[in-house]
Amino acid sequence: MRAKIVYFALAAVLVVYFVLVGSRGVMLIQQGTAITVTFGAAVLVLPFIGAWFLYQTTKFARDANRLARELEAEGGLPVDELVRTPSGRIDRDSADEVFARRQAETEDAPGDWRTWFRLAVAYHDARDTPRARKAMQRAIALHDGRPVRTDA
Q1: N or C: which end of the chain has fewer CB within 10 A?
Q2: pLDDT at residue 22, as a whole number
Q3: CB 40 within 8 A of CB 15
Q4: Following DSSP, what letter does each residue of 79-93 receive, concatenated?
Q5: Cβ(125)–Cβ(131) under 8 Å?
């Protein structure tokens, strides 16, 4: 719950920032000179890029949570069997061991979104966030029946 509160607070701050930056862009355009119109147009692009990024991130998190709820209802969420250090950090060897099992499971059933979801969790536990995100994107695409990129 704390993560959701922080996420929505940061998203609200970003939206305020987008409005402020957008207003500055409009003010620059209203000046009417060639340089200020050019800079104003360039400044106006930034809020649109930021809004697109915020939308994509929110959509990804919502879709991943939807899959997690569905997998939990099926009783298929991965069990936390990781060894942790006294400070609570995941032991690297333990994460690698679980990852190897999840990878083998995914290789045995590459068309099952559930195995890709569990692999994404294993990647995350192994601190490989980019691959975790790609695996989760694949799980979402497989679940939703969308085409899956083969280069990921």
Answers
A1: N
A2: 94
A3: no
A4: P----B-TTSPBPHH
A5: no
